[in-house]
Amino acid sequence: xxxxxHTGLCPVFKKCGGCQYLDLPxxxxxxxKEARMRELLRGICEVKPIHGMEDPFHYRNKTHxxxxxxxxxxVVCGIYQEGTHRIVPVTWCMIxxxxxxxxxxxxxxxxxxxxxxxxxxxxxxxxxxxxxxxTARATGEIMVVLVTAGPVFPSKNNFVRALREKHPEITxxxxxxxxxxxxxxxxxxxHVLWGRGSIEDVLCxxxxxxxxxxxxxxxxxxxxxxxxxxxxLAGLGKGETAVDAYCGIGTIGLLASRNAGQVxxxxxxxxxxxxxxxxxRRNGIRNIRFYQNDAGVFMNQMAxxxxxxxxxxxxxxxxxxxxxxxxxxxxxAPSRIVxxxxxxxxxxRDLRVLGKLGYRAESCQPVDMFPETDEIENAVLLRRxxxxxxxx
Length: 392
Description:
By secondary structure, the chain is an alpha/beta fold. Helix content is 28%, strand content 25%. The protein contains ten helices and 17 strands. The protein is globular.
């Protein structure tokens, strides 16, 4: 579905900075992104046509609003202007879930009657700092996270009851406590005010439990395509072993377990590992093991014990991997590496490093995971060359 694109679609387009391409027709956005990948990966590998969306709006399943006051001391909620701590008021957004935007505005409207003060960064006074909403596309479940500066939340039960009356579609409400002067949205402590404290979604036919801090791709439609492409590129067989480095809540590893003999997932974050183990159990998967460890250290240990893998999945943060980490992946001598990237520049850099380690990139599939923005996700297949230096 092609919808007319112009900055008039969004009243805060110039101030917000979140959607760099909102003023471009969608076909032009895709062409620009594809051309960028072809330029970056010239001489490295073939770049396939970018996979776009049928409807490139309202795709985000995670919505965050910061609360504060404007110069007239009126309560506002929205996002920080790019590069500043000035709040740009947002009532609705072209890329966020529409129901989530609606709930945030309801919360803003309820604050005065419940006498809940919003947090002031300068004075440290006030209670409500942020609202985070996560929605599950397949199940329709909705999580509301109220981030407060301190643990005391007056009339919290009445507040939650009133919010649920207005939005019966909400399935869980959590209070997260963040008392630190930090740009991080969520604090370490939280308690469930209503519901089970998590939501469940279905992705590629598997059920996943998502907590407030879980890493979960924000565009479920494109994620299904991206992960399906990653599995196709991996070409796993029943007797093969796969390693899912940076495994998070286990999404890629669990999907790989359908075709592989065994899968090893490695993740440093203990909350994510707990979620991953739960997700394996929820889907009745027994041929996967999760380890809480630095993936680079873990793969070096595997190599020292003479262990090998057939496929390694890499899905690093935007900054990409380090050369040391890539060497550790090469030491377990996989015949294929599937590299999923959300950082085009770091991808090009890492593919060159892997080339020196004996891995040749065959193809890159760009996916438009973040329409209206300049960000691009990619899935790349690399194969170990017979005369390669794959043991690093």
